[in-house]
């Protein structure tokens, strides 16, 4: 049969249409969004409405599930070994990279090979150093003096390689004091331990700590962001308190299993971009000091490479650099 130009165009259009139809038909069953931290933390505040909106955009329920364990290593391993169909998503923080930079044991997966970046959901928030009022400190200078006088403080973190751990290591480096790190399963347990008088300080994003700051049961000492927190403007940044190099910014991202068809990843990424830039969701993010992003996977991959370089630099300075990347 002679293949005319018109025939070729018709075949191309059919193929394009079939591919489009196949893409638009997905998903055909519910999806799952896993968060590797305990309920009640900042990832719940943003993750639950994100899952709900994403389900509306995709036409299928997105089940939000908390899967804490080993600073996200357990959940990430499950994502890495899941069926590569885009049906399981991981919503987490820079601890995804921190585990690679700080882990003293081989990871059971390679986060740069076995897990696919979908999109950087939001970034820009700093960490608030939150202290028990029992300490009597109202500034970094006072807190450092108390730490020296007592031979150190106790500090709750959400896991090694987590941003709370990075902030704690920066505290030790910049103040020249010691911290006894108490590893817990998220922000909510960390705040609870301070309220109970069992721990002296922690580093937290703004939303979960805000009610306690307002009632005076916790005290904000300093903020690691580029500028003062909009919701706690009376608390100076670390730079304002004399620590010129102390800046630490958090992020939230979405990943899925490597090998997932690219059109499915892009479908999720585009839906997330629309969600986070909707006025009400942008307002929610900015109340937590985050800025909406939602860019394409390749941009997120570049962000992760830069984040890895930064975290490896911190890990080397404090003598905790990972000896091996993965299994």
UniProtKB/TrEMBL annotation:
The keyword Magnesium belongs to this UniProt entry's keyword annotation: no
Which Pfam family, just one, is annotated for this protein? TctC
Write out the entry's keywords from A to Z. Signal
> What span is annotated as the signal peptide, if there is one?
1-21
| Statement: the UniProt record of this protein carries the keyword Signal | yes
Cited PANTHER family: BLR1237 PROTEIN, TRICARBOXYLATE-BINDING PROTEIN
Report the family membership.
Belongs to the UPF0065 (bug) family.
Q: What is this protein called?
A: Tripartite tricarboxylate transporter substrate-binding protein
Q: Which organism is it from?
A: Paracraurococcus lichenis
């Amino acid at each position: 049969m002679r293949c005319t130009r018109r025939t070729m165009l018709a075949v191309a259009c059919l193929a394009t249409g079939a591919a489009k139809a196949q893409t638009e038909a997905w998903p055909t069953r519910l999806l799952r969004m896993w968060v590797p931290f305990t309920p009640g933390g900042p990832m719940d505040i943003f993750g639950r409405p994100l899952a709900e909106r994403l389900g509306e955009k995709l036409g299928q329920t997105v089940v939000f599930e908390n899967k804490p364990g080993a600073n996200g290593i357990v959940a990430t391993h499950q994502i890495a070994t899941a069926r590569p169909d885009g049906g399981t998503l991981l919503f987490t923080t820079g601890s995804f990279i921190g585990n690679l930079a700080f882990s003293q044991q081989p990871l059971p997966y390679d986060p740069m090979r076995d897990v696919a970046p979908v999109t950087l959901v939001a970034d820009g928030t700093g960490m608030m150093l939150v202290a028990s009022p029992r300490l009597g400190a109202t500034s970094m200078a006072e807190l450092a003096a108390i730490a020296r006088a007592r031979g150190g403080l106790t500090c709750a973190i959400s896991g090694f390689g987590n941003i709370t751990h990075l902030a704690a290591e920066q505290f030790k480096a910049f103040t020249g004091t010691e911290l006894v790190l108490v590893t817990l399963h998220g922000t909510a347990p960390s705040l609870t331990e301070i309220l109970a008088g069992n721990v002296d300080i922690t580093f937290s994003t703004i939303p979960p700590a805000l009610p306690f700051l307002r009632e005076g049961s916790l005290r904000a000492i300093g903020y690691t962001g580029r500028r003062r927190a909009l919701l706690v403007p009376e608390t100076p940044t670390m730079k304002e308190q004399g620590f010129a190099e102390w800046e630490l910014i958090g992020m939230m991202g979405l990943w899925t299993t490597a090998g997932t068809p690219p059109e499915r990843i892009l479908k999720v990424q585009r839906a997330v971009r629309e969600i986070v830039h909707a006025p009400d969701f942008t307002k929610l993010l900015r109340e937590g000091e985050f800025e909406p992003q939602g860019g394409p996977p390749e941009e997120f991959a570049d962000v992760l490479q830069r984040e890895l370089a930064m975290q490896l630099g911190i890990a080397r300075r404090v003598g905790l650099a990972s000896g091996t990347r993965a299994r």
